[in-house]
């Protein structure tokens, strides 16, 4: 019985490994047409996802689709927005796809791209395929003739696509023995599938998917893929870019068909995350060892030493009255505009304009009291000479019996459902609005905050019956009463 269970489990594991080994990974490189710009649900409606659905119907769960396209990108490395410079391009390269599906050239046709660098398109296309072949020597290529551009939009020119891009892509297909998919010829009369003349709608994306799927099945490229090889399929550091010395980063990674995985020589899990805190530029190597091969990705974490380049003073209040105490905080920034929250510097605080007192200075803050109203400027300066002028407004105290407002009116009169109150207030304050019937009974009362200047308030009186009412408005102990009518 134990022998039977052992054989059953062993068979199940072999079957599981075999299923994983047969997984065909297809990576898509392209532009907005490939990413699904203009579609209601780009992730599911774009033609790569639709190809994935058709492949699943045909071959079951043996294919994996990953879309690394970026809108507006060019094949040309000197184009206005080269796909080469995108993080998604590096992710596609790390993914080491079994099949690389390339559909670029539409944005390359723009004048600023093709007229200046079109003679480099063929060499850049070759370089891209060679780069992916270096990453995965067993990769198969699918290259595509772009669909028609039905008008000159965003500078995209169909004449350039047809006369120059397409012949070069055709030559690439011959040179690399790549599967060629023609998105142009079958769609020449399908302008209705491209509402903006460039991007397919959902029906157009399905049409493109069917064209590609039929060629994939006809060429039987899925069964030509060399499966079973081991790869490190991702290396994703957070945060990206240079790391400030003393900070930490998380490097996440994934592998495929790995028997053992090493992070800088230390054995780790096949998929996981490692926290690092390098003090200098440091190289990290993720290595996967499998039955047929070894694969690795090298990531270099750049580290910089933070240098104070800017100091800023931040008040608890920028507007206050004489006698009030506020606190001024110093904020420091390095050469990368990153906050240096864990650092303190010697500071000199000076009242440059106005009258007041600075006291209770600590590491990065100081207290301030103004003695008189007006504009106050406080300067904070470091020993290295960096300084910042903080401008503050010390307000003039308002007497208790000073006018609270300049203009106050209610409208319309008569009113139907909403009574509007317009007031030009002399300062920030609150207003109490109460509605009384002529017999002195309070019907409603609201308290609203208003700011200095013009304010417009809306009071719902739609529930009150028709008749004559009094509106009592109270501001800073000043009262105004006005009669109004409600019509129904």
CATH architecture of the largest domain: 3-Layer(aba) Sandwich
The CATH fourth-level homologous superfamily of the largest domain: SGNH hydrolase
CATH class of the largest domain: Alpha Beta
What's the rounded overall pLDDT mean? 92
Total DSSP helices = 9
Sheet bearing the most strands, described?
5 strands, parallel
Instruction: Please bin the fraction of helical residues.
Output: 10-25%
Please count the beta strands (DSSP E, at least 2 residues each).
29
* Low-pLDDT residue intervals, each spanning 5 or more residues: 1-21
| N→C terminal distance | 90 Å
The computed structural class is alpha+beta
What report would you give on this structure?
The protein is of the alpha+beta class and 488 residues long. It folds into four domains: 208 residues, Rossmann fold (3-Layer(aba) Sandwich), CATH 3.40.50; 74 residues, Immunoglobulins (Immunoglobulin-like, Sandwich), CATH 2.60.40; 87 residues, Immunoglobulin-like (Sandwich), CATH 2.60.40.10; 82 residues, Immunoglobulin-like, CATH 2.60.40. Helix content is 22%, strand content 39%. The protein contains nine helices and 29 strands. The strands form eight sheets. A five-stranded parallel sheet has the order 2-1-3-4-5, sandwiched between helices. Strand 9 and strand 10 form a beta hairpin. Helix 4 packs across helix 9 and helix 7 packs across helix 8. The longest helix has 20 residues. The relative contact order is 0.07. The N terminus is likely disordered.
